TrEMBL record:
Domain of life: Bacteria
SUPFAM superfamilies: Glycerate kinase I (SSF110738)
GO molecular function: glycerate kinase activity
Record's keyword annotation contains Isomerase: no
Gene Ontology process terms (BP): organic acid phosphorylation
Gene3D superfamilies: Glycerate kinase, domain 1, Glycerate kinase, domain 2
Coiled coil, from the record: 353-380
Key words of the record: Coiled coil, Kinase, Transferase
Protein's UniProt name: Glycerate kinase
One Pfam family cited in the UniProt record for this chain: Gly_kinase
Amino acid sequence: MKIVVAPDSFKGSLTALQVGKIIQEALVTEMPDAQVEIIPMADGGEGTLETLVFATNGKRLPIKSYGPFMEEVNTEYGLLGDKRTVVIEIAAIAGLPMVPEDQRNPINTTTFGIGDVILTAANMGYRDFIVGLGGSSTNDGGLGMLQALGVQFLDENNKEVSPVGSSIFSVKNVNFKTLHPIIRECRFLIASDVDSPLCGEEGATYVFGPQKGITEDRLEGYDQAMKKYASLIETHTGLRTQSKPGAGAAGGLGFAFMLLNGKIESGSKIVAEATKLQSKIKEADFVITGEGQSDYQTLFGKVPSYVAKLANEEEVKTILLSGSLGKGYEALYDYFMSCHSIATGPMSLKECMENADSLLSNEARNIAQLLREISEERVRTKNISFN
């Protein structure tokens, strides 16, 4: 029996690769002859870099750059197995978890480090980039990143503004002619499942700003400043991108990458294609996927639903194994052969997360016993003589 294990991370407790290895070990314990292939998944957020590097036999390259507060940080970028495509994960450079809760306010954070890492990789000869936009602490419309790439943003005194979120309030002039020439040769594929425009009630500030530290009384003013900033850029470049779906991703980084001819696609789709997931599913008997919590929202573009979609196209049954099953999970039965939670009884979220590895292993072994019975039944049925 061949089984493909393609989970998302259990955020806060296990990476997608850790989840995959735990499930693999449990399956092989109960079915020693099973072929189990791990293809860790991600949707453009935390874990995208690890997933793509592992699945393509690439490597992780350490680098010093600038964090959310322009402080020096040790981070990394990935190089895929094709030795030509660089993976950059926003969460590893300007991620929300990198900012203490009592210091969260995107007027003080920056995307400068992202541009710095891109330029470093480009100067080493790389031109193809996959960028995972999830998990940012920023809302600067990509100003910091663009500054690191050479774009000039000037205030009313014709002086360069600081590369932080508050500077969108003071930008009066912009000059894209100073963009580093090498960047015009680069190709950016943006992994994001956010389809918000840059501004408005469905945009970056209103939808994602509060979780990053923007208080309710400042949302309108911030959004208006973002609109003026974006309109100034559009007038200068002749590009009309602020209203496009995805422009509001990562506090406006989607907008900034569109200015660089970046193409935004579903994060799950990008990871699946890079890992050749569908071709591997085609050869499998079963697929196991999962995430931290599955509920009715899982069907709206999250990793497990995308994996199930590919498996259904190949007529391969998919099993869902998640940290918990939430509101409306019953809707998932139309897409999954069965749905499982790792919780073994009443327990707090903290308890579940602290014991996620053992709980996951136990439930995966339960599933393995069922699959073993199915496999043995297939053998028995095949050996029946009808003479």
